[in-house]
């Protein structure tokens, strides 16, 4: 997402703005209305995944070995159905 930070040099307000390639950057400060904005360049954070399910470490070896044992030890996938795996 092209989200940029801007600093108003008049009132020192820092704000973020979504600026798409087809749009112009903001010209006025949303706080004081002056035309004294400067784009701030921050270091890139890259991709950030939040929540579970994105990393291989979320799936422990114990879970995989338990699933294999269940499948090998019975003819059904669970106790409620009669399918054969």
Structural description of this entry:
- This protein is an alpha+beta fold and 85 residues long.
- It contains one helix and three strands.
- It has a three-stranded antiparallel beta sheet, with no helix packed on it.
- The longest helix has 13 residues, at 61-73.
- It is elongated, with a radius of gyration of 27 Å.
- The protein starts with a strand and ends in a 12-residue tail after the last helix.
- The mean pLDDT is 75.
Instruction: State the helix count.
Output: 1
| Largest sheet: spatial strand order | 2-1-3
**Apparent shape:** elongated
Low-confidence stretches: none
Secondary-structure-derived class: alpha+beta
Q: Kindly state the mean pLDDT as a whole number?
A: 75
Task: Give Rg in angstroms.
Answer: 27 Å
Structure described in brief:
The protein is of the alpha+beta class.
Give me the secondary-structure topology.
Layout: E1 3-8, E2 14-18, E3 37-40, H1 61-73
Antiparallel strand pairs: 1-2, 1-3
Looking at this protein, list some descriptive labels:
85 residues, alpha+beta, three-stranded antiparallel sheet, 1 helix, 15% helix, elongated
């Amino acid at each position: 997402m092209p989200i940029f930070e801007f600093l108003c040099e008049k009132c020192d307000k820092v704000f973020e703005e979504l600026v798409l390639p087809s749009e112009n950057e903001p010209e006025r400060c949303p706080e004081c209305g002056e035309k004294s904005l400067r784009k701030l360049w921050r270091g890139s954070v890259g991709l950030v995944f939040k929540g579970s399910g994105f990393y291989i470490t979320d799936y422990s070896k114990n879970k995989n070995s338990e699933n294999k044992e269940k499948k090998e030890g019975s003819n059904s996938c669970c106790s409620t159905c009669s399918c054969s795996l």
